[in-house]
Design brief:
The chain is 19% helix and 27% strand. It has 209 residues and is α/β, with parallel strands linked by helices. The protein has one domain: Beta Polymerase, domain 2 (2-Layer Sandwich), CATH 3.30.460. Strands 1-2-5-4-3 form a 5-stranded mixed sheet, with helices on one face. Strands 6-7 form a two-stranded parallel ribbon. A two-stranded antiparallel sheet has the order 8-9. Strand 3 and strand 4 form a beta hairpin. The longest helix has 12 residues. The protein is globular and about 60 Å long.
Length: 209
């Protein structure tokens, strides 16, 4: 008679940080808990091994998202963030690693097929390279697009955008046009604010009488 051991369910984060930290061992850089979320920072070269441990040994079966972040003042300016979900524990964690413009991050398409498109998005928006991804192409911008739009130093003007022209029946390129000037709005001002009555607005009280 075989005994099936199910993974324990976590009703809170108590003890989870210690358990996962011990499991990751030398792969781990640091582990923190903030605002009810667990964040595990791992070595870049260990990201595939670390995520495999979390998937196979601790039941974080689903890769929900891969996101990027840009901190230009850091030597390794980019962070790659992996959001994992355990269906059996009803629990989520975040795993991060960092890299620079030239150093690839190991792909995790070996663990989750959907990582292919997610890694392509981070590559497209930030320029992060993923070693082992066999289809690392742009996915949100045009194939001929230059630069990476989510980088903090990407200019807001001076580039072109494309759209389908109903008049010309083809895709056309045009200079980027911002819908409005970049400025701070005073939403309490009658000149810049909303065209409906704001609750508690003293100016509206006089009009209602």
């Amino acid at each position: 008679m075989s005994v099936v051991h199910s993974a324990p369910k976590f009703s809170s984060n108590e003890g989870v940080v210690d358990t996962l930290s011990k499991a990751l061992g030398d792969h781990l850089v640091d582990a923190t808990e903030a605002n009810g979320e667990i964040l595990l920072r791992v070595k870049r070269e260990s990201i595939e091994d670390a995520l495999r441990i979390l998937r196979d040994d601790h039941a974080y079966q689903q890769l929900m998202e891969i996101a990027g972040a840009d901190y230009p003042s850091r030597p390794e300016r980019f962070e790659v963030v992996y959001m994992l979900l355990s269906l059996t524990k009803n629990h989520r964690i975040m795993v991060k690693c960092s890299t620079d413009e030239a150093t690839p991050v190991p792909t995790v398409t070996t663990l989750w097929p959907n990582a292919g498109w997610l890694e392509r998005e981070v590559f497209d928006m930030y320029g992060v390279l993923f070693d082992g991804n066999t289809d690392l192409r742009r996915i949100l911008t045009d194939y001929g697009f230059e630069g990476h739009p989510f980088r903090k130093d990407f200019p807001l003007t001076g580039y072109v955008e494309l759209r389908y022209s109903e008049e010309e029946k083809r895709v056309v390129y045009e200079p980027v046009e911002l819908a409005q000037d970049l400025r701070q709005f005073d939403f309490m001002s009658p000149w810049e604010g909303a065209d409906y009555v704001l609750p508690g607005d003293e100016k509206a009280e006089g009009e209602a009488k």
